[in-house]
Design goal:
This protein is of the alpha+beta class. Helix content is 24%, strand content 34%.
Length: 137
């Protein structure tokens, strides 16, 4: 199933909204349009067990779509809140020392750095700052 989104200005916000709505509707799987930055964010979410898995499916020669399996722990969604921090109209950047944590360290903040997309903990360890994409907990 391919989901056509209305907002072409912020594809990351669209992905986060698709995930949020999927959890609210208690879906087991959702679909989202493909992009490399979304793939990096989904990989971090999978590594931190916020989603079970994701795969890339070809619709035709040009279009690809993600199929994301959502994760539930004892019938409770793994993601209770997911917020976009940096937006196209207002970018938010932080140095390695001032990277925001998420929910007293129990959640993650996803950062786009010069070394790729990392969690706040990974970026601090490498001494990298960057654009604060979103917070997940």
């Amino acid at each position: 199933m391919f989901i056509k989104t209305q907002n072409n200005m912020d594809p990351l916000a669209d992905l986060l909204t698709i995930l949020r709505n999927g959890y609210l509707a208690r879906k087991l799987e959702v679909s989202a349009p493909y992009s490399k930055i979304k793939e990096a964010v989904l990989k971090i979410l999978k590594d931190n067990k916020y989603i079970k898995s994701f795969s890339v499916e070809d619709i035709d020669e040009v279009k690809k779509v993600f199929s994301v399996k959502l994760n539930y722990v004892d019938n409770i969604p793994a993601i209770t809140k997911i917020d976009r921090i940096s937006r196209p109209s207002v970018r938010t950047y932080a140095t390695a020392k001032k990277l925001p944590g998420s929910l007293s360290g129990t959640g993650i903040t996803i950062i786009s750095t010069s070394s790729g997309v990392l969690t706040d903990k990974q970026a601090r360890k490498k001494g990298l700052g960057g654009e604060v994409i979103c917070q997940v907990y």
